[in-house]
Structures are given as structure tokens and as C-alpha cells.
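Incident review: delayed structure delivery

Summary: a single-chain prediction request sat in the queue longer than the usual turnaround. Root cause was a stuck worker, restarted by the on-call engineer. No data loss occurred. The affected request and its eventual output are reproduced below so the record is complete for anyone auditing the incident later.

Affected input:
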Amino acid sequence: MSVKSQSAWLLLVVSLPTSSATARMRIWRALRALGSVALRDGAYLLPAGEHRDEALLAIAEDCSSEGGVAWLMGAQPRGAEGDAAWRLLFNRSADYAELRKSCKEAKRGLARQSPAELARLQRKLQREFEAIRAIDFFPGDASVEAEAALAEFVKRIETLLSPDEPQPAAGGIARLDPALYQGRTWATWRQL
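Output delivered after worker restart:
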């Protein structure tokens, strides 16, 4: 039975022998890659869903195979305040702010870089954004702002790589008076 079906939150409690530093680091990296939050030494919280319970079960099995002990359980906060506090633990605003800062700093030296360097930089920042987005379980304004900053960065690179290509004009299309264009004869192409 899936832990996910019973609870909105997953709690993994892990205890490894002190002699297995490699296993400890591997498990810590796996938990970090999932986006879990350490409540204290060996206790990790994660929202349920999207196959996260299976991933935590695999980590628990890895822990057991290394001579440790792991318990995976569903958890419920006590009331709306507890739920809000747990959600706040997963706030990725600082990560998004760091990404926006990286985009801003990278834009300064774009004109001096080769096309290969520009493509590499674009891929790097895109990967960073996707990594944050993958573990942002409760997206907010910070994710929208980071996505806009990245889109602006990509647009700037495209402008540098294709300077002669037409660029969209800023602003809206001016509305004209339809009466000025009615009752006139218009030239058109026939049978193209």
C-alpha cells in the first residue's frame, strides 16, 4: 500500500552506522535531489505525491542494505498553522533569487562571449532553473519571476546570435478608425 494514499506528507527517519560515511553521503544526496527537508538529524520531510513515496522507499531499502534502519511514514500537521509552517520549509524563493542574480550577472558579459560559450551558459542556467522547479512543490511569485528573468536572458542571447533577425516591437498595436477604410477600392492579387 502506498504511503501517499494515507497522508499528504511523508516522513523518512534514517539511522546509519557511523562507519558508513559513503552510504550516508549517497543517501543524503538522494534525499536532497528529491527536495526533502531535514527536520533534524536523520528525519526528512517531503510532500506526498508524484512517485515520491516510491523514491523514499528505495532510499529506505538502500539504508537497510547498508546496515542501517529506516522508517517511512505518513505525517499530518496539526491544523492549518502546522501545514503552513511545513510548506514554508519548502520555500524555494532564495534559490530562485540566486538564479535571477546569476542571470543578471551573466548578461553583463554576453557580448564578449563566443556562440559556443553563450549556448553553454544558456544550457547551464536552464538546467539550474529546471532543477529548482523540479523540487519546488509549492511554486509562487518567485518561480514566475525567475522564469521571466531566464526568458529575458535567452531572448538577449538570441538577439546577439541573430542580430539581423527582426525583433518584436514593444507596446501594443494602435487601434485605427475603421471608418477611414470603408467604401474604398483595394488592390488585391488574383489567382496566385
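Verification: Helices lie at 21-34, 52-65, 79-89, 93-108, 115-134, 141-161.
Action items: add queue-age alerting; document worker restart procedure.
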